[in-house]
Amino acid sequence: MKEKLNRIVEEATSRIESSDKLDVLNDIRVAYLGKKGELTSVLKGMKDVLPEDRPKVGQLVNDARKAIEDKLEEKKAAFEKKVREDRIKAETIDVTLPGHKPVSGHKHPNTIALDDVERIFIGMGYEVVEGPEIEYDYYNFEALNIPANHPAKDEQDTFYINSDIVLRTQTSSVQVHEMEKGKLPIRMIAPGRVFRSDEVDATHSPSFNQIEGLVIDKNVTFADLKGTLAQFAKDMFGEATKVRFRPHHFPFTEPSAEMDVSCFKCGGSGCRFCKGEGWIEILGCGMVHPRVLEMRDIDSEEYQGFAFGIGLERIALLKYEIDDMRLLYENDVRFLSQF
To answer: From the centroid of its chain, how far is CA 140?
Structure first.
């Protein structure tokens, strides 16, 4: 029996030492120590051993089991050590190599332009307010003196959710909400996203940003409007910037105008940037229509106001001399990293 057990231990040891994988080691464990292994077979033959010899044989079997288990653990530890050493070797960091400079994010050109606009108007005493992007037809059109049959309400221009609710086409709707609060005077700008059914090209998008401005107080005149916007243009585009106003029509202002600024690229002499005209259209504006005031229970004889609307993307395109509005939305890091 002793010779048989020694042979089993020697055979197991030889197989363990020649094994090269952990899976092979597990197979050896099952072959010698498992329920159907070599040592289990020896134990099953204990019934043929004389009773007085059984303790001695049992001890021999236990010694053989321990010898095999020790060899298995030793080989397993060697495998694990090699795996650990290989991993450490693969993960070795060469501290002499140059480091990687961390790249931080920064503001989008639209956000930079908006910060500039807000800084200018807050400095003039204006408040920044917000309103809903999903708006009632009433606030987006009717309360702004845009009747039901007005072309601006065509489905080709407006995204309708149902007959009463739209995606706002202008942030002018925010001025109606502010007037409803009944707190006068009002000096506010309302930046936000608006939606119109436009084809995507270099100067148009179905979703863009607009900044609505509104002032309502006693004794407000068109001269106040001109002075405010002239100062805004100088602060935004440079002290040498000139402005001009051209008659226009908006349903919610009367009189209405469009404002141009002198080309800050060529100084007004004419260039590619201003298409040779020396002037660049920048915004629409006008005196708040008396009917818009009356619908909000504001006495148009005592209070007057002016409003203006600026396209934020237009400010960014002009200020940073960008030719294609689509660049602002494509999230190309090569482009955005320039700002």
So the answer is: 28
